[in-house]
Amino acid sequence: MLMAPEFMQVVIVGMMILVPVCIIYKKAGFSPLWAALVFVPGFGLLFIFMQLALLPWPNAKLTSER
Length: 66
Hints:
Layout: H1 4-28, H2 44-54
């Protein structure tokens, strides 16, 4: 059973990761709500990093090379 101090510790660490990830998502052009994946146990951060690494960013400027 999760005790109150450990639960608060999880929330504080999650918020320390959530806020910067929200900012990154906003600057990349994605919805900042995707940052809530931080709270998915085990694979949350992996999902975030894979999404940011593999999907094309909506705010990325397309350059055409000739």
